[in-house]
Every structure is written in C-alpha cells, then in structure tokens.
Amino acid sequence: MSRVLKAALASCCFLVAASAAIAQEKLKIGATATLAGALTSGGEDGVRGLQIALKQAGNKIAGREVELIIAPTDASPDSALRAARKLVEQDRVQIIVGPLSGSEGIALRDYSKTVPNVTIINGSSGALEATYVNPSPNFFRFNSDGAMWMAGLGEYVLKDKGYKKIAVIAEDYSFPYTQVMGFALGYCRAGGQIVQRQWVPLGTKDFGSVIANLPDDVDAVFLGLGGGDAVNFLNQYSQTGGKAKFIGGSIMVDQTVLSSRGAAKRLLVGTPSSGGVADAWDSPKWKEWVKLYQESFPADKRFASPSLFATNYYNAFNAMKTALEQVGGDLSDGGGKFRAALAKVELDAPNGKIRLDDNRQAIATTFITEVAELPNGELTNKFVRTVPDVTQTLGLSPEAFKAVGLPSRTNPECKPTS
Amino acid sequence: MSSFVARRPLASLLILIAGALFLWLVFAVWTPGMEAAFGRKRVFLSALFNGITLGALYFLVASGFTLIFGLMRNVNLAHGSLYLLGGYLGFSVGSATGSWVAALLASFVVVALAGILMQVLLFRWMEGQDLRQTLVTIGLSIVLADLLLWGYGGDTFQVETPAWLSGPVQLPFAVALRSNGEAVMMTYPALRLAIFLGAVVVGVLMWLALNRTRVGMLVRAGVDDRDMLSATGVRVQLVFVMVFAFGAGLAGLAGVVGGTFQSLQPGEDTKILLSSLVVVIVGGMGSIPGAAVGALIVGLAEQFGSVYMPTYAVMLTFLIMVAVLAVRPQGLAAVRR
Amino acid sequence: MAVGTSPAPLGLTDPRTGDAAGAIARLGVSFWVFSAVLILMPLIASPFWLVQIFAYAAILGMIALSLMFLAGYGGIVSLVQMTVAGLAGYLVAILGDSAITQISLTWPWWVAVPIAILIATLFGTISGALSVRTEGIYTIMITLAIASAFYYLTLQNYTIFNGFSGFNGIVPPRFLGVDWRGTNAFYYLALGCAALAYWAVVYVSRAPFGLALQGTRDNPRRMAALGFNVAAHRIAAYSFASVIAAVAGVLLVWFQGQMSPGTAGVGPVVDILIIAVVGGLGRPIGPFIGALVYVLLRTFSLDALEAIGLDGKRFQLVIGLGFLLIVLFSPGGLIGIYERLRERHRRSQDTRAATMNAAGRGP
C-alpha cells in the first residue's frame, strides 16, 4: 500500500521535473515561506500577499509569463537554506522572494553571497543583522527590521502616556532583543527608566513566578512576547488580578494574539505598540490594499485584515516587478542590471513610502498603534500616528549607532541622559 | 515512621530542622537581610506555590502516563497528543455549553474512549512488543498533531475560566508589613488553588482505588508481574483496557486544566510529553507516588528556576533528571527489585 | 535462543531471514551494480541531486545507521544519536571557523574535527552509560529527555552555543588539494564516509564484540552468567555508534554551512528514528534507504502532493500515516517488504519446482 504511494510520489517528482524543463521561456520566481511549524499561519498569509500581487500583475511581468514556485520552510535556518538551494539548483530560479523569519533571513544573506547571480528579496524577516552586519550585495529588504518597528514608541509612551518607569518581560532570543533595543534607544534618551528586564525562554508556559517578580512601582510593563507565550502571560496575569498597564512589542499585538480564543486578550485593550502596519490606518492606499486583500480570499481563508507578512511579501513582489519592468525582464547578465534598478526602486506601498539605503535596507514608515475593541468584540490596532522615514540607525549617526553595539540581553543599557 | 527515626536518628533530625526552617520561612515576616538574600518574600512564596500548582498539572498528565507504562510497558508517546486533543475538545464543549465542568467531563469521556480504541484496535495485537508499541504511538502522535492542526488551525486557544474560579483569593501569609504595622497578606489566583486541590483529590482517589478495590489489586498485581497475573486466569485484557481508558482520560482532563490556566496550540503536545517524561524518570517509572514526587520536583524546579536563574530554568529540570539517573536510575520513589 | 548473527531488533524482524554473511554473499551482482551506479552518479545527476538529495541522504543515513546498529544488534533504541551528531557539528563551528568570530576559535580543521568527534563520542558514551543502567524501553525515554536537554541548552546558552541564532558561515575545508565545497568532491566525501560506516557496522557485527552484543540483546542474563559484562558491552556499542554519528555530524555542518538549535531539536531527533524504522532496522542498508525516501519526500512533498491533487500542507499527515502503515504491517521496514517479496517469489519458485518434480516422478 505505502509502496504504491511512494512509487506514485516518486513518479510525480519526475513529472514535475520534466514539466519544469519544457516551460523554458517562462519567468521563474522562487519564494520561501514558513508553511510548517509555529509560524505557519504567518507563512500562509505571506503567500496570499504574493498571490494577490501576481494576480494584480495579470500573471505577467515585462511581457513574460510568471511561474511562481513556492518552497516551504519550518522557520529554521536549515530549512530556509534547503528551500533556497532547491529553488536555485533544481528549479533554476534567479530571483527568490523570502524568507519570513529572522534567523532564516541571516541564513539566506550568507547563502546569497555564494550565488552572486541570484537576487534574494527578503519576504518579511526582521533581524537587524540581515542587512546591517556583513550585508550582501544581492540581498534586498523592503521592510523594516525589528528595531525600526519600535521607532518613536518610547517617546510616545513617555510623553503622551506618562510611563516614566517600566519593567520588561520578553522572550529570550534575538528578535525581542532587537525590539527592546529599538524601544529603549528612544525611551531612555527621552528620560524613561527601565528598572527590570526578565528574559523568559521561548515557549514558556507558566509565568506565575515571573509575574510575582515584577516590581510594584512601575508605570507599565513592556511585553516582548508572541503567540502562545503572549496568551499564556495575559491569561495568568488576569488570574492574579493584576492591574498593570502594558506596552506591546510588534508581535505581542498582532492578529495571532488578538484573534486568539479566550478572554485573556481583553487585558490588551489600550496597549500602545508599534510596527510595520496599522490595521485601521485611514490612508487611501492602505484601505485599497485591505479591500483588495479581503476581496481576494473568502473570509474563512484569510485574516480580518492583511497581516504584516502579507503586506511585506506583497511589497517585495511589487518592488521586484517594478525593477524587472525597468530592465524589460532581462536577467541574462546574471541579474546585474536588475539589481541596479532594484536598488533604486521607490515603492509607494500600502504601508507608506519605501526606499533603500546603501545596505539595500528599507527606509520606511513605522506606525504607532493602540489596541482597541471593535463593536463586535474583536480587537484591532487603532492607528495613532506615523513615524515616517525611519532608518536602520534609528535617526542616530552611523557611528553613534555602531557605538551602541548589537542588541543582547543587557544591551543597550538604559542610562537616563539629562 | 518511628522505625525510620530509630534507624536514622541523624537524618531524621536534619529533616525535622529543615522542615521547621521551611515553615518559619513561609510564615514569618522577612527581615531586610533575608530579603537581600532571597529576594522579596512575595516572590519566594509565589515561586513555591506556583511550583506546587504547576506540579499538580504535571501530576494529572504524568500519572496516566506512568500507570499505562507500569502496567502495559507501553511508552505512550502519543500521551501529549491526547492532552492536546482533550484541551481542544474542552474548548469546543466549553464554548458551546458555557460550562467548564461539562468541558472537563466531556474531555475525560471522549479521550478515554479514544484510549479504549487505541488499546483495542492497536496495542492489544502487539502485546509484549515494547518497541513496536512505542513506534506506533510515535506515528499516532504525528497523525494526531496534524489532524488537530487541520481542525483547529494554528491559533492559540484558551478555555474560558469559570467566573467562580477567576481572580485572586487572599491567603493567610503575611508577605510584608505596612508602615502602620498592618500585615500585607498574600493574594493568589483561585484557579491555581482549585487545580491543586483537584489534583490532590484525583491523587487520593487513585490511591484508594489502587489499594482498596479489587480492580486496583489486579492493577497492582499486573504492575508487579504481568505474566503471573494473566496466568491466574484474570481477564487481563479488560484490566488493560480500563487502565488505558483511565490514563488517557486523565490526559484529556489535564488538557482542559492546562488549557484553562495556560493555553493550547500546536506543539503543546510535545512540551507536555517531555515534562511527563522527566516527571516519571525522576519519580520512578510505573509508580503513582513517584509521579507525585516527580511532578512536585519538576514544578518547583521550573518556577524557582524562572525567578532565580531564568536563563537556565529549562535546563534545571533536566539536570535534576540526569542527577537522579546517575544516583538512583530506577527513580526516587520506585521500589527496588 | 542461541547467539546468532541475525539482527532481530526486539522482535521487529522475522528471525528466519537468514544471517548477515549470507546476505552479503547473496548481494553479489546487484551489490556491485549498485556501487557502480553510486560512483558514476556525478555523470548522470545534476549538482542539486548529488548534494541536496544523495549527499544529504548519505549523511542522515549515517546517523540513522548508528541508531540501527544500537537497535538492531544491541536492542537499544537510542534517540540521542542526532544529538551526538549535533554536538559534533556545533564543536566544528566552535573550535573551527565560522561567521560568529567572537566565539569561534578558528583552529585548523585537522585539529577541530578530531576533537569534535572525540568529544561528541564521549558525550554519546556518557549518555549511554546513564541509560544502560535501566533496561529496555526506558532507554527511549531517557535518551529522548537527554536529547531535549541538549536542545534547550543550545537554545539558552549564548557564551558557547550562541543561543537561538547558532552559527553560520561554516565551510568545508580544503585539503589534499581538493576543495571539498565542490559538488562532486562533497558527494564523494559523503558517499565515502557512508560506505566506510556501512562497512564498519557490517564488520563489527560479525566480530566477537558484535556477536557478544547480539548475545546481550537476545539473552542478557545468560551472557552475564557466561562472564560477559553486559553493561560494558552496551556502553561500548554506544561509543562505536557515536563515532559514526559524530562523523556524520561533521559532514552535516559542512553540508548546511550553519548550525542552530533546531538542527538537533526534538523533531529531527524523532525523524532519525523514523528514517531508521522506515528503512528497516534489520539491515545496515535500511537506514540509507529510509534516509533517501525521507529526503525525497521532504524536498518534493509540496510539489508532489499538489500534483496529485492533495493539499500540500498535509505533508506531516502523509509521513505519519506512512510510518504507521510500515510499523503496523511491515515491521522490517522497506527492506522487510523487499525481503518478503523476494522470499515469496523464491518460495513460489520452490513450490513450482517441487510440484514439477512431483509431477515428473508420477505415481
């Protein structure tokens, strides 16, 4: 029985390989997205973003029909590498859109150096290092990194909300370090104080003692958690009857938490946060994108509004399309002309204007938001304000930013500067 | 008890002193010097209680696991999947009926039925083939995990806490003194206390059932010598099915409990399975008191670890396991054979 | 049961299926044809197939082979083999060169690699020593717990293992005038190591040590009564298996170019068991067949499932069901299926011959 299945699978493999060989003149575009593991729902939304962009382009770029080949990953760098190698070596693509998550981005940055004729346009990964440390000439990123998503939030919570002393609870890996860094640089410079940082292992289920360990005299708690950890924290915090105010990291208030099933998420109402998109922004370009997204898929096959992942993949595809059309779809020189054009693309994206810096890293808009309850009981991110033209150095000079060092459990320190 | 004191006077004295010191730590108002050494008393006490209540959850899961293992030598690596299945079912039933108790009961019954199916359809036909049974449970856990992901998606679920269990209650322990000399009493989540009491009740009932009933006697006999039991003409298959059903049902029940004070999502099955593994390895495989001791140790280690050495909190439980394996490989509470 | 050479892991294989020496002899022509195809593979296969499919399968196959050795000849199902490989890979990154310059010691490869293999072997041996004190099926639980302990350690420790991010920028060295990064070179390196490991396992299984080990599997009490130190034999088996897994780990890190906690997480640890079981724990070739099937499925599952009109996302379900079917209906794995088919074929020939003889003799 299973032997028959295996034989069938094997023959299918060869069929796929064969059919790939026939369609020579098609423009092959590879994409990687997390379609297994914890970030599956994000990966699926990223793919939706690609499909919408492809459909909008009429399946054609510069007159050539596009064949989109998606390679799944499970958010681990090994799997991203395997997926990229399969796309390049087996499917012979010259452009890859992806990956989705932080450490995958770093893995593909390094991989891109070994294949100089392949152009990698980041899907949605947000690790600072991917374009800041040892940047690669053929790795482009049209979205902000984790620190840039926090730009302006520190000043906002200090001045507008009056949170003068805060504690931090965040997951113990690079993305939350980066987010806390982006937050702390602005917050501490403006005079705020971080009195405690608790780093909890990824996948922590019981926050009981972490909650008890919070100081009594802080104005708010910065939460750099995501997914199940975020829900566990909120749930157990509500059981202790605590009344603290929160500040949310970008993934603390995304739809995976806001649409979780249960009552705990209600604690988030009123929580300020910031990120690369704001669900309820009233710019016409954004509204148009939301409408397009909602019309492209039935309600049970998508999120209520496009996630960061869908938006970033959509933007990455459109940047690629723009540059490809400028060079007439010509990749015969190993993509050199294409990359030169891509570096100059200025995208009028749904989530604000995007251009690239010298490291091929986006200079883009950050959105400050606040969680609010809709009349139907669902939670959404209310738009507060935009922070336009955020650079990777967060407004510091490159030297000053370099002096801060890379984010870690203790870096940056929070010295109140007077 | 008295014979132990007579045999090991020194050890008894040390245990007594440690116990008294511990009680004093819990009830006394801490001096600033102690606060400097151990941190604030509230933090210490919370870690203690949280450790015990977390241990209660682990006990619920691990006792079924260890019972099945002890009787049938079946390492049920799908036990975590049964936990997750129970949790999701509890969520569905809870949100449909609005009753938490109904969710608990429904999960227990349905997952117990699933356990019966597993035993009757699969494991019965490969008795004595330990490895093959284990491999089947691995296959089942992969299939179940994907089916649950298919059915419930990747979102995080949380079973609604009933109103009578939500919020904190006050405990009779002073954690600090106000400037006017009035003691600040400790508050603690009611739900966690309820879970602890529930686990104690389940534990006591299990002990009674094992030690005071005929079926319990059969089960104990089976754990000690399965071949001998079947040789005496007992319908051993029936005992197996009952134990498997009960163990699986407990996992389902624990899923609802865990889904109420923690949350449910894909991957939770592996995490809870690993915790159960460590619990039964530390406590002793096949032993219910062992599961209780192991669950308590693992729960306390996780909670104290998360406060006093957050970076390596996860490692602490595994270090304890390795230490136990090195010193007493059969587990702390297992009977030497 | 007498001490025999037949690998019969915990009743997984039919004990009637002959002995290993016979198997080698019977391989005969097909064995040489098979070898020739593997050696000439670079002439027909694309670089992608060479490295991403065959070399990767050879590496995973070696790790699964180390499990097969323990399970098939020693009756010990250890889930720690992937962890041994992972540790060796990590050590190559830590002692050798990587992009994480603040940790990597940049020792030359001919120092880093032997030390990595040595330490990983030591780790495997100690894990073995911890778990052989308990018996049989406990081992699977204890080794799974040790494997997850290692995973959490690498995830949380930044000073040595660089935590969540791990290491990247690790490249195979250049030696004997060959750049082992090259497609053909790496293919032959992986193939050579796999062949060596295969040969070593076959050899050891027939050496006195291997025979004694199989004795401890079949009847530990009798072996102890005969004066064999059962625990020492089992620990030695762990050491031997760990060497194979450690070498595979070095190849793995060169293959991936990077190392992170997920490489030896709980998923991959269980995958190695699945590979070994699907291939067949009865013969040393089984793990390699399992690895090839696994790599093909992982690489082409999405395309293949969608090509036959199924949802590509249900890949795990297919793997799980396939694994269940194998365990339930062919405990010998794919090799077992092959052998049963051949057995049936031969038996039907025998019967035909017998009936013909009978008919010829006449009344």
Biggest sheet layout of chain C: 2 strands, antiparallel
Helix content of chain C: over 70%
How many helical elements of chain C? 13
Which H/E pattern describes the elements of chain C? HHHHHEEHHHHHHHH
Averaged pLDDT of chain C = 83
In what order do the strands lie side by side in the largest sheet of chain A?
2-3-1-4-5-6
Strand content of chain A: 15-25%
Helix content of chain A: 25-40%
Silhouette of chain A:
globular
Low-confidence stretches of chain A: 1-24
End-to-end Cα distance of chain C: 42 Å
Distance between the termini of chain A: 74 Å
> What is the strand tally of chain C?
2
Q: What is the secondary structure topology, with strand pairs?
A:
The complex is a heterotrimer of chains A (418), B (337) and C (363).
Chain A: H1 2-22, E1 27-34, H2 40-56, E2 60-61, E3 64-73, H3 77-90, E4 95-97, H4 102-114, E5 119-121, H5 129-132, E6 139-140, H6 153-159, E7 165-171, H7 174-189, E8 193-200, H8 208-212, E9 220-224, H9 227-239, E10 245-248, H10 255-258, E11 272-275, H11 284-296, H12 308-326, H13 336-344, E12 347-349, E13 352-356, E14 362-373, E15 379-390, H14 398-404
Parallel strand pairs in A: 1-3, 1-4, 4-5, 5-6, 7-8, 7-9, 9-10
Antiparallel strand pairs in A: 2-3, 11-14, 12-13, 13-14, 14-15
Helix pairs in contact in A: 2-12, 3-4, 6-7, 12-13
Chain B: H1 2-7, H2 9-27, H3 32-38, H4 41-72, H5 79-97, H6 100-122, H7 130-152, E1 168-177, E2 183-189, H8 190-212, H9 214-224, H10 226-231, H11 236-261, H12 268-283, H13 288-308, H14 313-327
Helix pairs in contact in B: 4-8, 4-11, 4-12, 4-13, 5-6, 5-7, 5-11, 5-12, 6-11, 8-9, 9-11, 12-13, 12-14, 13-14
Chain C: H1 20-44, H2 47-74, H3 81-95, H4 109-132, H5 138-156, E1 174-175, E2 178-179, H6 183-206, H7 208-218, H8 220-225, H9 230-256, H10 266-279, H11 286-307, H12 315-329, H13 333-361
Antiparallel strand pairs in C: 1-2
Helix pairs in contact in C: 1-6, 2-6, 2-9, 2-10, 2-11, 3-4, 3-9, 4-5, 4-9, 6-7, 6-9, 7-9, 10-11, 10-13
